Amino acid sequence: MAGGRALPAHPDFTARFAAGLRDGILPPGLTAKMPDEAARRFAVYRNNVAIGLIDALAARFPVIRRLLGEDFFRAMARVFAETHRPRSPVLLDWGADLPGFLETFPPLAAHPYLADIARIEHARGLAFHAADRPPLLPAALAGADPSRLRLCLHPSVQVLRLAHPAVSIWAANQPGRDPGGPFPPAAETALILRDTRFDVPVAAIGPGDAALVEALRTGAPLTAAAHRAATAQPAHDPQPILVRLMQAGALITPGRTDDETPDPQPEPGACPCSE
Amino acid sequence: MTVLPNAAGVGFKPQHFAAIRETAARIGFFEVHAENYMGAGGLPHAQLTALRADFPISLHGVGLSIGGAGPLDADHLARLRALIDRYQPESFSEHLAWSSHGAEYLNDLLPLPYTGETLAIVCDHVDAVQQALGRRMLLENPATCVLFAQSTIPEVDFLSEISRRTGCGLLLDINNVFVSASNHRTDPRAYLADFPMDRVGEIHLGGHDSEDLPSGPLLIDTHGSPVADPVWTLYAEVIARIGPRPTLVEWDNDLPDWPVLAAEADRAQAILDGGGQGLARAS
């Protein structure tokens, strides 16, 4: 440093180091035993940061990776990582912005379904790490009045209404499967949950099932939820989806949830999801 | 509070869970990266709960950014406290490095200059960690591939002074010692000779990778391969000098099958059992 100027203090040092990870400009004072190797050595950190984030994204979005191919995925992920740095050291839910990023990433403008695939993969990550809740035992339903009974959903349960046949594409691109296709344009609704074996299956469901699950999520009593399902899909039979949810452990024991939408007009003693 | 046993442990990876449940009685302890267990529930917590029931646990943080300029992330400290309250690990450790800048998490252990200013910052941060977590922590020496002109304090002196001022213990990563010394063309034995061994609560071993620079090799601590022979030699020398210490084999990338990792732990255990003389037998 010429002119006896004081070397930067730590806040300035870390700011310039962090900026250099993006633009390659060496932080002040960075050197090596052979000083002309400083840039090559600083590049190790630039590379580590980029690869670490790309690998984290690859682990969370395996079908996006498969659809794009390794080289394209890593190039895309590098751009995403530089423009959407994680805001927390907990990377388990990093990537919530990837669907929106894919929708506006010019090289992928011809593939609008990719954002829906990313929505499925992000939701699967959330379900994988969702809170644990004890499953509802069938005996708890014995003799219940369906007009007052409220069934509580496990926090992993999510319904995604997608504009593209993303569930079909997602399923066809699981490891070892032939991607198949073509997939005619069609909206699909995905049911995502974590089952009792910690698997996170993705299923396409019809409008009645979707309306029923969404109604349960808002705290509607079972009769009211079934009515909404029948409105969305005439002659809808609620039993198969309820059996499926219960077998997966996606209906839970009341009184232990903290993330249910409170009922606007609670009936005393009727809402098992509260508390 | 209990402590880690003076035995060989390994870093836990979910891919090894089933094999561990069948064969792992000989593993002294498991270490987990704290940030991987900061989801609300699910398989990670189910596995850690099962491991916790059978083994001592070392909780190893990679995201606190103790060497950063700003204050520590209070939310992250609270998450760590919750994990510690839940699992009661025998040890908590973190790094002499920084990994966040402002609100951005950079996902790497970045180096810092060693000055009076950074010494004061790191000591404040270690004090804050130990206060928030209600326990003594271990601070790990870094693997570096650059130097800073503004550094005025040798790394060993920097770590010694942090330990003296804050009361924290040290995690001696012998692979990091070897990597840094090789990268800076210095003598790892001189570093180890000066290291305050009475503060060492755990030793790390791991694999590194190598690139070629004009002046010689550039080593990178990738934890993606077996522990290198020169690192085993240094480890045996340290154990012969200071006696047994809890020793962890780290393998984070390009994971091998469980028997390969378990064999690395066996090799460390043989050196511990032999008082540093087990190297030839285990090789």
Low-confidence stretches of chain A: 1-5, 255-272
- In spatial order, strands of the major sheet of chain A run 3-4-5
Give the helix tally of chain A. 10
N- and C-termini, Cα separation of chain B: 36 Å
Region (Disordered) (chain A): 252-275
Domain Putative DNA-binding (chain A): 15-102
Pfam family, one (chain A): DUF2063
Protein name (chain A): Putative DNA-binding domain-containing protein
Describe the structure.
The complex is a heterodimer of chains A (275) and B (283). Chain A has 275 residues and is mainly α. Chain A folds into two domains: 14-83, no CATH class; 132-275, no CATH class. Chain A is built from ten helices and six strands; from the N terminus they run αβαααααββαββαααβ. In chain A, helix 2 crosses helix 4, helix 5 (98-104) runs antiparallel to helix 6 (113-129) and helix 8 runs antiparallel to helix 9. The model of chain A is unreliable at 1-5 and 255-272 (pLDDT under 50). Chain B has a single domain, classed as TIM Barrel (Alpha-Beta Barrel). Chain B is built from ten helices and 13 strands. An eight-stranded parallel beta barrel of chain B has the order 1-2-3-4-7-9-10-13. Chain B has a two-stranded antiparallel sheet with strand order 5-6. A two-stranded antiparallel sheet of chain B has the order 11-12. In chain B, helix 4 crosses helix 5. The interface between A and B is large, with 49 and 56 residues. Strand 1 of chain A pairs antiparallel with strand 8 (147-148) of chain B.
In a nutshell, what does this entry contain?
Chain B: It comes from Rhodovulum steppense. The complex is a heterodimer of chains A (275) and B (283). By secondary structure, chain A is mainly alpha-helical.
